[in-house]
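Handout, page 2. Input:
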Amino acid sequence: METRLDRYEGARERKIEQLKQLIKESKYIVFLGGAGVSTESGIPDFRSGEGIFNQESGLSYRPVDIISHSFFEAHPEEFFDFYRRKLCYPKARPNKAHKALVRLEKQGKLKATITQNIDNLHQMAGSTTTIELHGSVFRNYCTECKEKYDLNFILKSKGVPRCTKCGGIVRPDVVLYEEHLEHENIDNAVKAIKKADLLIIGGTSLTVYPAATFAQFLKSDRVVIINKSSTYLDLQAMLTIHDSIGAVLDESISKYIPRKKPETKKKTASGSASSQTSTKKAATKKTTTSKAAAKKPTAKTPAKKPTTAKATAKKPAGKSVKKD
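Output:
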């Protein structure tokens, strides 16, 4: 919901202009996003009124309990029943927020996209800087032999998915409750934020740790919050916009994407300079070889020995006849 401040006439427009200016001034932007980034793609979040945690699980357990490590270990069949129905959305596609962030990346300003989502939508949109804190439903692996499987394997399997090689349980490569995040992902996220001159936080209530604490690593106060509901950082942020993340980013990030200039080589009438030079070298080499071959004596035609002054001197002279 919007704040009273956002409802004042012209307030939203002024905030959009302020965000545009912050983006223009920045050279190293980092985006930290949560479930709200994907709601506009038809994927429900967790904690809102219509979120997954407030929906009927279809089982005699609470959703928040089902997606825990201990529940997965104790009730794998119920886990996968809920997992397929509530956490997998193979038909979801990137929305305006994902596409706007890709534009910002191609403009050379967005250096890292840190996401708590497991839907792969940032990568589908074209992001190459995504750091997935909680993994992805599109990656799955055998708990025994570590053989890898895609999402279709999980969706098409019945009951508990089993490895076709060793028979072990195939589980999603996502971080469940009671499990630790990958240290490498946390380190990469913190390193990026430490270098940032602007941190945009969007689509997250900032209640999930450790992501909720990442803003403390920013060396400046240049934080922008874009979220429909309030967060604990709203009053500390340089700019707070309570609105649709897709609409705000789409309006604030330029549609311009610089094109890479294709590499061209200088050409002459007879072809490229390099190929012409190669041809000349080859022709010169061929001519030199031909001359050398012409001078070289063959077995059929023995070489003539040159006549020298010494050879002439050694030739005996005839006797002269003395006349009386």
